[in-house]
Amino acid sequence: MNIQSLRKKARDGSLEVEHVLQAAIERQPGLAEELSSLSKKHAWQFESLQPDGRRVVPFARWATVAATYASGGFPELRKLLDEPDNLPFVLGLVESIKTSESVVFILDICNQYLKDDPQSTIAAFQIASSFNLLLSFKHAPVISDQQAKSIQDFLMALYPHAKSQVDRATVLLALRGVGDHSAMTFVEAAADFTNPWAATKQVV
């Protein structure tokens, strides 16, 4: 996704978040400057919910995350997490980069969100979802046994915090990419699900 294509899509209204992320993943030259220019020109917003009640795509925040990664890679991206609202956007990019570096990045931050406060718990389940998207499907990056064990430990520690079927399913589905024999036992012992999640344990 080159700069010219981004500019054209922003102009005709066909730009999507995936286009911005793809340009970041490709580390397009001049992307940071172009996204800054487009953000000002098209009045992109940082927040989805606007003061008048409208909801918009927060392209300005996506642009910040994309530009940061394109310019400075994972080290600079990590700095954005000083602002908690950036986490879902950072994860949205990282889970799209199918490399071992992405796994290391998420592993480095995951345990800081295993806390009892609601905001940290929400973030932890977002991280579990990212592990699932990175590691449970084709073209998953290669990770070490120790990394797999660390992710499994995180997921198992997170599971008791689940308050809904969606959260429980998120954790168990993420185990597909990293789980060992003990994970199979853990899944079998988990409470059964009802529709639309009834097949979760079988799938895992």
Task: Fill in the keyword field for this structure.
mainly alpha; 61% helix; globular
Overview of this protein structure:
This protein has 204 residues and is mostly helical. The chain contains 11 helices and no strands. The chain has helices spanning 3-12, 17-25, 31-41, 59-79, 87-94, 100-110, 118-135, 145-158, 165-174, 181-189, 200-203. The radius of gyration is 18 Å and the shape is globular.
Could you give a short description of this structure?
This protein is about 60% helix and about 0% strand.
Q: From the alpha carbons, calculate the radius of gyration and give it in angstroms.
A: 18 Å
Got a strand count?
Answer: 0
How far do the termini sit from each other? 35 Å
List unreliable stretches of 5+ residues.
none
Helix content bin: 55-70%
The percent range for strand residues is under 5%
Instruction: Please tell me what the overall shape is.
Output: globular
Structural class: mainly alpha
Give the overall pLDDT as a whole number.
94
- Tally of alpha and pi helices: 11
Largest sheet: none
Order of helices and strands: HHHHHHHHHHH
